[in-house]
Write a structure and sequence with these properties.
It holds the Pfam family DUF3039. It contains 2 helices and 2 strands, in the order αββα. The chain has 80 residues and is of the alpha+beta class. It has a two-stranded antiparallel sheet.
Amino acid sequence: MSTETLTKPETDSTESTDDDTPKMFHYVRKNKIAESAVTGTHVVALCGEVFPVTRSPKPGSPVCPACKEIYQGLRPGGDA
């Protein structure tokens, strides 16, 4: 009979802390989200908040009221 040691999978330690959990999600240009997630560059939300993208919102996640108001006031159409 042999014993095997199982290793714990690597996890991002910042995801396990309560400090980085977004209190709300912001509206950001689509083309900047992937870039920020990959490179760690900061994005600017419609409300002016500046941050790196670290999480994706799930259905029912709280949305920044200022971003939501600005987004609803935008004309439909381009993502320019």
